[in-house]
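Example 3.2
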Amino acid sequence: MIDMFRRWLAAVQAYATTDDPQADIAAKVALVIVSNQPFYPLYLHAIAGTAAWPAWLTLLTLPLFASVPVLARRDPFAGRALMVLAGTGNTVFSVKLFGTHSGVELFLIPCALLGALLFRPEERLRSLPLLALPFASYLFVDARLGEPLMRVAESDYASLVSINAMSVGALTALIGLLAAARMARE
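Structure, written as tokens:
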């Protein structure tokens, strides 16, 4: 059993590894999201009960995150760009599902961090729209999404903000740790 787990872990590690250091960060972050995203609806159901049914729709973005490592191996810039696009798109979609009162917009923070971190100085002009996307989403898109699909009791919003803030903190810390490890190797 342990040997089987080690083989599975080695296969996942190989899937998430690329030759490009920044694309490697994107691939690893994407796979962490893939491994955690199926649990998110369960967390929301624990907080809000059956009113959290829209949380299952977030799984529609799972293939985007799962394809980041594959694309990053073929075209590192495109793989890194997909990571920022998928993260920002998933966040905007989640704002429509859960509303701004849920604190889900906080996920735009790691999206902006990835937009700044994943691209080299010589790619800055090409990547500037990706860096601007999370900010533009917050300023211009979220306010126009209308009423959210999920309706919960006012008392549940504090728990939703708490779980989203903790998740954002953990994701941001992971990105920082991966970047620090990359810098230590250089």
